[in-house]
Design goal:
The protein has 209 residues and is an alpha/beta fold. The protein contains five helices and six strands, in the order E-H-E-E-H-E-H-H-H-E-E. The strands form two sheets. The protein has a four-stranded parallel sheet. The N and C termini lie far apart (44 Å).
């Protein structure tokens, strides 16, 4: 079976890591990259840095990783073909009218318990999901996640909910293989930024007794 042909939109601070990881995944070839701002970290290698989404999807790709700032993600989504897969935003996985048909056997990536978030490639998380599913760790009563640290200056278009909490939400659903039924959250801004820099959330998952 031929390797999957992957494309990458965005070659900035996060895109450089996605480029490295795509090249390290067995069965995947990174064949096209795009960023109108160029390649500041020199991660394209021998690939041409394409100027826009249209040029990228014209390369015959199987899926696309979107690593652009959150504010520029949604405008790019309608131009992605129906066969493109993305790493996060639910809006990006909606098919566009008139796009090419999805490749047989491929499914769109969505942030739910059936599809693997990109951080779930970590062996520790894969092992935890398996052990929970097999009952090796007993009954699951509570999952607690916490992130704390300096707010990165380069993230100026969203707050911690979209930038960081989305990963904890995705991974918790994937590891436990459950869906969310209820979410209660409170956000505050203590640093005087436009967007929130703190969030506390309590969530209820399916499968409770």
């Amino acid at each position: 079976m031929a390797n999957l042909r992957a494309g990458l939109i965005g070659l900035g601070s996060m895109g450089r890591h996605h480029a490295r990881n795509l090249r390290a995944i067995e069965g995947v070839d990174l064949v096209a990259v795009a960023d109108p701002a160029g390649d500041p970290f020199g991660v394209a290698g021998g690939l041409a840095v394409l100027p826009n989404v249209e040029a990228l999807v014209g390369q015959g790709l199987d899926y696309v990783v979107v690593a652009t700032p959150r504010s520029s993600t949604s405008p790019s989504a309608p131009r992605l073909p129906r066969r493109a897969c993305t790493r996060s935003s639910r809006s990006l996985s909606r098919p566009t009218r008139g796009g090419p048909p999805p490749r047989r056997g491929l499914r769109l990536a969505r942030p739910d318990r059936r599809h693997r978030p990109h951080r779930a490639l970590q062996p520790a998380l894969q092992s935890l999901r398996r052990r929970l599913a097999e009952g090796e760790l007993g009954d699951l009563y509570q999952v607690v996640t916490r992130r704390q640290g300096p707010f990165p200056a380069r993230i100026a278009d969203v707050g911690v909910v979209k930038d960081l909490a989305s990963h904890d939400i995705d991974l918790t659903a994937w590891v436990t293989q459950r869906d969310y039924e209820l979410v209660a959250a409170r956000t505050v801004s203590k640093a005087g930024r436009e967007y929130e820099d703190m969030v506390a959330a309590t969530c209820q998952l399916t499968g409770r007794s």
